[in-house]
Amino acid sequence: MRTSRFPLFTSKETPADAEIVSHQLMLRAGLIKRLGAGLYTWQPLGLRVMRRVERIVREEMDRINGLEVLMPAVQPAELWRESGRWSLYGPELLRLEDRHERDYCIGPTHEEVITDYLRQELRSYRQLPVTYYQIQTKFRDEIRPRFGVMRAREFVMKDAYSFHLDQDSLETTYRDMHAAYSAIFSRLGLRFRSVGADSGAIGGSVSEEFMVLADSGEDEIASCDQCDYAANTELARSRPAAPAATDPLPAERRSTPGIESVAEQCTLLGLTPGQVIKSVVVMADEAPAVLFVAGDDELNEVKAAHALGAETVRLAEPAEALAATGVPRGFIGPRDLPAGLTQLVDHRAATRVNFSSGANQADGHWINLNWDRDMPLPPTADLRTALAGEGCPRCADGRLEIHRGIEVGHIFQLGTKYSEAMDARVLDEAGDARPLIMGCYGIGVSRVVAAAIEQNHDARGIRWPAPLAPFDVAIVSIGAERSAAVAEAAERLYADLQAAGLDPLWDDRDARPGVKFADMELIGIPHRVVIGERGLNAGELEYRARDATASEALPLDDAANRLV
Ligand code: ATP
Ligand code: MG
Ligand code: MG
Ligand code: MG
């Protein structure tokens, strides 16, 4: 490509509303353009990077025999009613009606669609195991879209789903998938960790997240300084705090008549013992805004809906009720106790926080059940380090360290959650119909691009890891308009590099060298060759790696070979 035909929409200004460096640089380098809240156009330069991520993801999925499909973004509500998630998913699910007044949603994930597809195609255990994947656009009506494509509403995900007759087979594929994910993130040149995770709204028992380590990450990871234990603090903190099923409830916590043990309470709430209650009630001054607060993700709503145990839950209601009280709408996204406190500090109106589980009485009013605890809001700093230094739950001597991470991938052992609900079965060897055992596996393809920038940048701009770079080499010609020798040398190098299979960007604009250098550094091309008259007279080109501080001379005749 030549910049005369591949316009660069770069900018020197740091956009005021971009809080983190990847968002700033993606806008400044002209990778993306904002359309609306959480909606972005991928410009040609940005799309090249995303395509490179996709290519690596595809190669690794194909290597473990994944079959690529492409499912519709718009999904019939019927399927979501079958799985039970139509009422459970909450306001992150964008719902719409067609001209025939039929309900649909724009898929935030595709468990229902793939289960419906394969319950029609899979008949026998002989067809198993099998893994399907797609790279496709998702929509989640995030309560607080931010950081550009990092937390967008419309984003690109690779989602894969595997189908099995038994748990052993699921575990084998899950391990293969874990290895494939490790290969993908290694090939992308990212520093990452896989950590134990909460299964959230997707469901299932075992799940792990892949976290790109970065201070700007929204997740917090606890890892042991002695063994390989690592977990999202959502999980790490919730586990020790979880009550045993046999624990009697202290008398002062028995706010519901007849409920005397944790087990009974769990039954009432539709939770399994050991699961942590994740709803939150905020008190503003003394005005009791006693509400279930819709969190920043679906999890809270799911738990609340479990608590309601009803199909009729209108998950918009809590948010509306909150608005009606006049309590300023804050960012409240705790997933468990007390880890969620880290995010409550953003809710400046809150004077105290009352954690509770919620349940619905027959008359539709919310009541609080047990585990209630009023506590003053600690300062942010204390919250951030609340785990650090604690003993490792796995080994005897280890201490936990806290890091921040960006969730770029998440793998789940789902079990039969969807196949039971949607009656997806195959015949086993004995001819009995058995529910399919499933796994599902996501990668935030568009988020990966932002995460890579968080780890690879400097004051001058992006420093792409080579496999992600939109172009392999920048050729900066100086004065080609006036010098036939420069134009000819640039043309030749450009052609030689292309012939060698590289993707060069020739900056052939009639602009000052400083402007061209700044742009090539901002957009992060890993290698740069400068072609000017002075160098040519000495039979040389000037080469500099993006992360080097000095240039070196390349012999004109051998330049292409040296770059390949
Ligand atoms: P998060 O905790 O960041 O909200 P999630 O746990 O809700 O993510 P999953 O359901 O596990 O997301 O989806 C798989 C992957 O999709 C995530 O690991 C992440 O990389 C990506 N992803 C999820 N939500 C977004 C979003 N709003 N914008 C960009 N990528 C996203
Ligand atoms: Mg989410
Ligand atoms: Mg998550
Ligand atoms: Mg996740």
From TrEMBL:
InterPro entries: aa-tRNA-synt_IIb, aa-tRNA-synth_II, aa-tRNA-synth_II/BPL/LPL, Anticodon-bd, Anticodon-bd_dom_sf, Pro-tRNA-ligase_IIa, Pro-tRNA-synth_IIa_bac-type, Pro-tRNA-Synthase_IIa_type1
Signal peptide: none
Enzyme Commission identifier(s): 6.1.1.15
Cellular compartment(s): Cytoplasm
Catalysed reactions, as listed in the record: tRNA(Pro) + L-proline + ATP = L-prolyl-tRNA(Pro) + AMP + diphosphate
GO BP: prolyl-tRNA aminoacylation
UniProt-listed Gene3D superfamilies: Anticodon-binding domain (3.40.50.800), Bira Bifunctional Protein, Domain 2 (3.30.930.10), YbaK/aminoacyl-tRNA synthetase-associated domain (3.90.960.10)
Residues covered by the Aminoacyl-transfer RNA synthetases class-II family profile domain: 33-465
Region feature Disordered, mapped onto this chain: 237-256
CDD domains found in the cross-reference section: ProRS-INS, ProRS_anticodon_short, ProRS_core_prok
Key words, A-Z: Aminoacyl-tRNA synthetase, ATP-binding, Cytoplasm, Ligase, Nucleotide-binding, Protein biosynthesis
Molecular function GO terms recorded: aminoacyl-tRNA deacylase activity; ATP binding; proline-tRNA ligase activity
Low complexity bias locations: 240-249
Any one Pfam family match given in the protein's UniProt record, by short name: tRNA_edit
One cellular component (GO) term of this entry: cytosol
Top-rank taxon: Bacteria
NCBIfam families: PRK09194.1 (NF006625), proS_fam_II (TIGR00409)
Record family assignment: Belongs to the class-II aminoacyl-tRNA synthetase family. ProS type 1 subfamily.
Identification of the protein by name: Proline--tRNA ligase
